[in-house]
Write a structure and sequence with these properties.
The complex is a heterodimer of chains A (about 325) and B (about 290). By secondary structure, chain A is mostly helical. Chain A contains 18 helices and no strands. In chain B, helix 3 packs antiparallel against helix 10. Chain B is globular, with a radius of gyration of 25 Å. The chains are: A mainly alpha (about 325), B mainly alpha (about 290).
């Protein structure tokens, strides 16, 4: 090793130009560190950067046998094909509608839940409620999909049994286009409300208690304290969470829909993620699916960027 | 404070307590319903499932556990979780160490290379083409390698290492230890808390992952347990029919619904048992993440 290193140094000194020599020697000096970096580096190049290069198939007519490199370029033909198809626009509409519904109905519950939980003084009860509310977060949609299919079943599901007992008609929650979106939104809130409240609870625990004590002395009631102390203290976090939520408007909860939908509700429940999956991996239209996904990512980026700009105008809490 | 105000206060407080209790019931009810269904004997009509079924039978569980693919699926899940978590933590740790050293050449560039991937990725299709081209289909590597190092975790470990005092390694350097020895002998033991946290995140992620197995494992015997469950419950009229038709022991009949419920429970129970103990580490993750975001 020592011999090799002195040989290398001599070689590097003879062959390299002064600037290059510096870099070489730097890396040689820290060769053990570089060796530690190497496996991760190889991983990032192969599994993170090669797929980014693979995005070029959105502009090619990709054929597996010829590989990404060998497939012929077709310019924007694939995108033209995407935008000319009616089913793409239906899916695009579904994605947006569903996300907007989830934002409208799903944004407030975690905040309200955190505020109410914050009013509870009994530490044990509070902890228990929190722990139970986290449960659905740890169960994947693939399990919950199976669970809800049975739970919402028109023939044996408890909700429909109750409806029928009241003399009403059974509702096909997962099979009726009129109900499918509602079902998705409600089950999503059910799954994410407890977990989503963590961030707000943390902010609530950071509020200076001296403010509340001062308010008590001034004779403020619960409602006034909430309005003048709690909500203003939460507003930066709420703003950031809102920006992030807007950024996710095209991120369509693939896992949830994929495990709950069926052809009967494609017209309302098929979203960009599931569409990409079916077109790309079931119909093998690799270029087409990649173009759809690339388009989705561009929109997502634009959304985050503009949401951040708008938020920056309103107040000084941006994410960059 | 007047008596009336305090009465109203108490009423409001009571209301909040009751509402919280209701939220817990709504959260737990679907799970309890499935649990009851899985425990109910097939003599109990499915429209009359109660919290504690009038006739309890473990036959559905026995059938599910005897179904070979469930066992194989569990093995696949455990293998990918153990192997994936071990390799992820190892490579993340090795990569974070050089990036935490101010004197490492081109550190900013190498770190930027990692951070860039937080914002840009290839997406499903290019990843699928890559895994297929590398010949990883139907192997555990298809589930372990694509998500081996998360840029987010790497940055967290790197920041943790940057907060350690330099004096730690200087004495070892004087003794002639090289960086690799220092990392594994000195730095690693100090990093234990952050390693445990990240290992936990990765492990739960692996345990709950199923989509990669769906696209990369075309053969039933390579699929993870979540997917086996999905096939039985969602697509699986055939599977569950054949399951319920297995008249391997006395002629006790099990309905597909009881079986599906038992399958759901069998795949969920490990998570249910573990999550109360690991949740606090996940909360920590949200906190770190929110500081970043």
């Amino acid at each position: 090793m020592a011999a090799a290193s002195s040989l290398f140094k001599r070689y590097a000194l003879q062959k390299a130009s002064p600037g290059e020599r510096g870099v070489f020697q730097q890396y040689w000096k820290h060769r053990h560190l570089f060796l530690l970096l190497l496996p991760g580096l190889v991983y990032f190049i192969v599994f993170r950067y090669l797929p980014i290069y693979g995005l070029t198939i959105a502009f090619k007519d990709f054929r597996f046998l010829e590989g990404i490199w060998g497939s012929p370029w077709v310019g924007l033909d694939v995108f033209q094909n995407v935008f000319s198809r009616a089913d793409f626009w239906e899916v695009f509409r579904n994605t947006f509608l569903l996300s907007i519904y989830k934002l409208i109905f799903g944004f407030a519950p975690p905040i309200l839940f955190a505020l109410l939980l914050n009013e509870i003084r009994n530490a044990f009860y509070k902890k228990a409620v929190q722990t139970i509310s986290y449960l659905p977060h740890f169960v994947s949609w693939v399990v919950l999909g199976g669970l809800f299919i049975q739970f919402l079943s028109p023939s044996i599901g408890p909700i429909n049994i109750l409806l029928k007992a009241m003399g009403l008609k059974a509702i096909y929650f997962l099979g009726d286009p009129k109900w499918f979106r509602t079902t998705l939104v409600v089950t999503d809130i059910w799954k994410s409300m407890g977990w989503g409240s963590i961030i707000y609870l943390a902010s609530l625990s950071n509020i200076d208690t001296a403010m509340y004590e001062a308010a008590d002395i001034d004779g403020a009631n619960r409602w006034q304290k909430m309005r003048s102390i709690t909500l203003p203290s939460l507003s930066p976090v709420i703003t950031i969470m809102l920006i992030l939520a807007v950024g996710k408007l095209v991120n369509d909860n693939f896992d949830q829909i994929f495990n709950m939908y069926n052809p009967a509700v494609y017209s309302v429940g098929d979203v960009l993620g599931t569409y990409t999956y079916r077109e790309g991996l079931e119909n093998m239209s690799y270029s087409y699916a990649t173009a759809v996904e690339l388009f989705k990512n561009v929109i997502a980026f634009a959304l985050v960027y503009s949401a951040n700009k708008i938020a920056g105008k309103i107040n000084e809490y941006g994410i960059w | 404070m007047s008596y009336r105000a305090s009465a109203v206060e108490r009423l409001v407080t009571g209301g909040i307590y009751a509402l919280m209790f209701l939220i817990c019931v709504v959260t737990l009810y679907p799970f309890l319903y499935i649990l009851s269904t899985s425990l109910a004997s097939s003599n109990v009509p499915l429209t009359q499932i109660q919290l504690i079924p009038p006739e309890i039978s473990l036959e559905s569980y026995r059938r599910v556990l005897e179904y070979p693919l469930i066992g194989i699926g569990y093995c696949n899940t455990i293998v990918r979780t153990v192997l994936g978590t071990f390799l992820s933590v190892l490579v993340t740790l090795m990569m974070a160490y050089p990036l935490s050293k101010k004197y490492f050449p081109h550190r900013t560039f190498w770190t930027g290379l990692v951070v860039f991937t937080m914002f840009f990725s290839g997406g499903i299709i290019p990843n699928y083409i890559l895994v297929r081209s590398l010949g990883l289909m139907n192997t555990v590597w298809a589930l372990v390698l694509p998500e081996l190092v998360s840029a987010f975790n790497l940055v967290i470990v790197r920041n943790f290492m940057m907060s350690l005092p330099d004096s730690l390694e200087e004495s070892a350097k004087i003794d002639g230890a090289n960086d690799i020895t220092i990392l594994f002998r000195i730095v690693l033991p100090i990093c234990k808390p952050i390693i445990a946290t990240i290992a936990l995140w990765v492990a739960v992620w692996h345990w709950n992952s199923w989509f990669d197995s769906l696209i990369y494992a075309t053969r039933a015997e390579n699929q993870v347990v979540q997917l086996v469950m999905r096939r039985i419950v969602l697509e699986g009229s055939q599977n569950s029919m054949s399951l319920s038709a297995q008249m391997n022991r006395q002629n006790e009949i099990v309905t597909p619904e009881n079986l599906k419920a038992a399958t759901i429970m069998v795949t969920t129970i490990p998570i249910l048992l573990v999550y109360p103990f690991v949740q606090k580490y996940f909360v920590k993750g949200i906190m770190i993440g929110s500081l970043k975001g």
